[in-house]
């Protein structure tokens, strides 16, 4: 239905008032022959038209008026209708009856006052019916479907047709009205059944609603009686047609009030149940909000437990948590022994860990044997996607204490709880991961500080290095130490395993290296022998390496005065060497066992010293297995041969260029795959012109 | 990594198949840790299908070496591929452990 133009709408009430005035004038003229002689009489049609106009205007006004229902304040709506227009209309009818009965208004001589009262009553009643029409519509439309709204519009249309037909059809030719009247009756019954609103009246308002509906019914019946009785009153000059329409509308109002009253009465006993269900839904919403705010698992479990006990009104309850160490079990009016006995019984029946509802415990022999005062039991397990975290048990004294809805509600509760618990755990886990990452970052920085950044300025050889860890911290190690003006110590090593454990051993090795270097005293004729260094390092490491760990290392002392170097290899990769005189590239093939493999004195026999005189232009390549074991996409290893051939082509370059060539070649070989092991490379190139050593 | 066990009266043969890296060496360690293993006179490791051994894998053998010696159980490796043998050699384990070319030689020891 299209919205009514606002200007027309605001003219509706004044229009109705004008029509009413016209009716009043017409009635007075009819009732008083003297005035009629002076002003002329009013035809039936005009009077009927005025009444029809007023009715139409009032109904249209109410029809376009917004619903007066605020939220679910049905009682307030009914009260406004009955205490205003309702009382007014009833009072009018009562005054008329009283005046007639007591003879307060003279009828024989002058019928004008009675007719004026009658017209006033018609006006007030029409106003009341229009307001009632708006009220019923609000109530019918409450939660109504589209179909119901459609039916209401048909009802309005039929009302309109009845109103118009009544104007033109003589009073006794009711047959023409049969169709719209029958339709109105059917629709009236249909619409009268739309009393959904009754279910939403709160308990304390229910009696007020009953009272107001009863009042509406009484007022409507009173008005019907009034119009039926005045129909026979010949002193009233209004035409017959006026009353019929009012009767029709009053009958509908009476019917709607009656049905509403019946519905309210019938639902009175079930109202408490409905109210309880509403409470359950509300407490579920509260719980949902609370649980998501729970900051610890203990808090979340407590919230679940309290809400569950409160909502189903349990007489006894307890919550078993599987990780009971951190969370003391929750219980409500039950001791540990009793709960244990029930649990054992359920386990015997093999129903301890499923959703289970038993409303007739005395019927179970096992339970009867426990001799406990309970009639109903709910078992509700709490399951996350991975594990079963606990079980909730609820008991009631009476049988049939729980229903399916309780079970559904508890499932929702436990579902919410479990989601929150999982979230809390995930949060904790990710926080922990962040911390570990942060710790690793620190470890990586510490390790970085262990590795030498600059070499003491050296005029005999160039040294360059490259190191890349496969993880944040690595197990590769290298270091230098200037022992005296003409002696320098170099160490390269690899701790078995990767990551943090390996990094700790790297730090230990550095300490051992620097401590043992104090033993080098060539001026006293006691230079440190590399094999001695390895033996002592092995001994020191034996106390701190776990049994399955070992370390490989190569250790060199270069002496410029002697133009040679001494070295020992403890299980480490062979050192690659380019001899500038013979122009040969080869690996030093020396025997030597890794550190930490033999942890007794027998180690000493398994490590050898080697001495070599270097030439200007010689190149020494030290590395860890991450270099030669670098793999290509087919899983093929880079290998010692490839490295030797590369040095055979690049020996003439600077140490920096040789290093870069090897790094590039290894990277190209592995096609940019990330290294699966730590890679370290050290290049020593003896300068072509060796400075004179001052004696 | 697969470990195939083959035991007769006094010899246990473990066939290693695949790569012995950090994760698979845990399996091997579990095998070698079993107390029953010390009832044999000899434990032979068939390395024919062992393609790769990491330092973690070596560590497993190293950690059990002393225990086997103390119990008088011989640990013998055979059928070792060259690149795996090279790893044993570089570390110096070839002089510490018994590594022979064939199963017959291993059995004869």
From TrEMBL, chain A:
Pfam families associated with the record: GAF_3, SpoIIE
GO terms, molecular function: phosphatase activity
Alphabetically ordered keywords of this record: Hydrolase
Gene3D superfamilies named in the record: 3.30.450.40, PPM-type phosphatase domain
Alphabetical list of PANTHER family matching this protein: STAGE II SPORULATION PROTEIN E, STAGE II SPORULATION PROTEIN E-RELATED
Name assigned to this protein: SpoIIE family protein phosphatase
Organism: Hymenobacter busanensis
TrEMBL record, chain B:
A GO molecular function held by the record: anti-sigma factor antagonist activity
Pfam families, A to Z: STAS (PF01740)
Record-linked InterPro entries: Anti-sigma_ant, STAS_dom, STAS_dom_sf
Protein family membership: Belongs to the anti-sigma-factor antagonist family.
Listed name of the protein: Anti-sigma factor antagonist
Organism (species): Hymenobacter busanensis
Taxonomy of the source species: Bacteria, Pseudomonadati, Bacteroidota, Cytophagia, Cytophagales
């Amino acid at each position: 239905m299209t919205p009514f133009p606002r200007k027309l709408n605001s003219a509706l009430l004044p229009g109705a008032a004008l029509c009413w005035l016209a009716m009043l004038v017409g009635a007075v003229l009819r009732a008083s022959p003297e005035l009629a002689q002076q002003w002329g009489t009013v035809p039936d049609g005009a009077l009927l038209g005025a009444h029809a106009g007023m009715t139409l205007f009032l109904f249209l006004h109410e029809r376009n008026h917004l619903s007066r229902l605020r939220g679910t304040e049905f009682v307030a709506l009914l009260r406004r209708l009955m205490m205003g227009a309702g009382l007014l209309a009833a009072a009018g009818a009562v005054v008329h009856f009283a005046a007639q009965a007591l003879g307060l208004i003279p009828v024989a001589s002058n019928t004008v006052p009675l007719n004026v009262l009658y017209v006033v009553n018609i006006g007030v009643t029409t106003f009341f019916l229009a307001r009632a029409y708006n009220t019923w519509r609000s109530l019918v439309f409450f939660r109504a479907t589209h179909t119901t709204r459609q039916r209401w519009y048909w009802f309005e249309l039929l009302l309109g047709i009845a109103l118009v037909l009544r104007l033109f059809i003589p009073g006794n030719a009711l047959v023409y009205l049969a169709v719209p009247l029958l339709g109105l009756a059917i629709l009236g019954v249909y619409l009268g059944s739309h009393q959904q609103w009754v279910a939403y009246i709160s308990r304390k308002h229910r009696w007020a609603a009953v009272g107001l509906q009863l009042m509406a019914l009484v007022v409507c019946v009173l008005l019907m009686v009034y119009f039926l009785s005045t129909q026979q009153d010949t002193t009233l000059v209004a035409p017959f047609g006026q009353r019929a329409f009012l009767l029709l509308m009053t009958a509908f109002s009476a019917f709607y009030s009656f049905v509403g009253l019946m519905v309210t009465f019938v639902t009175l006993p079930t109202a408490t149940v409905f109210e309880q269900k509403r409470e359950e839904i509300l407490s579920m919403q509260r719980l949902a909000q609370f649980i998501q705010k729970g900051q610890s698992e203990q808090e979340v479990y407590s919230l679940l437990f309290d809400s569950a006990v409160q909502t189903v009104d349990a007489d006894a309850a307890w919550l078993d948590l599987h990780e009971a160490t951190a969370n003391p079990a929750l219980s409500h009016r039950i001791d540990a022994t009793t709960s244990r006995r029930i649990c054992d019984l359920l386990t015997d029946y093999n129903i301890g860990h499923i959703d289970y509802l038993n409303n007739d415990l005395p019927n179970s022999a096992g339970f009867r044997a426990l001799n406990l005062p309970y009639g109903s039991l709910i078992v509700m397990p709490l399951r996350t996607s991975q594990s079963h975290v606990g079980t909730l048990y609820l008991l009631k004294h009476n049988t049939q204490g729980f229903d399916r809805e309780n079970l559904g509600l508890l499932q929702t509760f436990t579902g919410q709880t479990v989601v929150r618990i999982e979230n809390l755990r995930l949060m904790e886990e990710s926080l922990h991961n962040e911390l570990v990452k942060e710790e690793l970052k620190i470890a990586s920085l510490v390790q970085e500080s262990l590795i030498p950044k600059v070499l003491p300025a050296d005029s005999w050889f160039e040294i360059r290095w490259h190191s890349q860890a496969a993880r944040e911290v690595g197990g590769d190690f290298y270091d230098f130490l200037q022992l005296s003006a003409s002696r320098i110590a170099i160490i390269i090593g690899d701790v078995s395993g990767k990551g943090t454990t390996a990094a700790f051993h790297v730090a230990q090795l550095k300490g051992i290296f620097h401590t043992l270097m104090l033993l080098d005293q060539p001026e006293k004729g006691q230079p440190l022998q590399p094999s001695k260094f390895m033996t002592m390092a092995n001994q020191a490491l034996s106390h701190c390496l776990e049994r399955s760990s070992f370390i490989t290392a190569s250790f060199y002392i270069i002496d410029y005065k002697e133009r040679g170097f001494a070295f020992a290899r403890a299980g480490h990769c062979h050192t690659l060497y380019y001899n500038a005189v013979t122009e040969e590239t080869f690996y030093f093939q020396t025997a030597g066992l890794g550190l930490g493999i033999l942890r007794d004195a027998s180690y000493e026999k398994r490590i050898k010293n080697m001495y070599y005189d270097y030439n200007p232009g010689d190149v020494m390549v030290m590395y860890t297995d991450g270099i030669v074991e670098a793999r290509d996409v087919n899983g093929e290893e880079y290998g010692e041969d490839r490295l030797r051939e590369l040095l055979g082509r690049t020996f003439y370059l600077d140490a920096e260029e040789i290093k870069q060539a090897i790094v590039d070649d290894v990277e190209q070989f592995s096609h940019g795959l990330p290294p699966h092991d730590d890679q370290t490379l050290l290049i020593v190139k003896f300068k072509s012109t060796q400075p004179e050593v001052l004696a | 990594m697969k470990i195939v066990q083959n035991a007769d009266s006094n010899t246990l043969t473990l066939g290693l198949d695949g790569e012995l890296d950090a994760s698979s060496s845990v399996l091997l360690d579990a095998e070698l840790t079993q107390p029953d293993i010390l009832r044999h006179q000899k434990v032979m490791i068939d390395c024919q299908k062992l393609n790769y051994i990491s330092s973690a894998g070596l560590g497993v053998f190293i950690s059990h070496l002393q225990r086997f010696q103390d119990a008088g159980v011989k640990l013998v490796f055979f059928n070792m591929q060259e690149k795996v043998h090279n790893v044993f050699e570089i570390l110096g384990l070839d002089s510490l452990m018994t590594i022979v070319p064939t199963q017959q030689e291993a059995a004869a020891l």
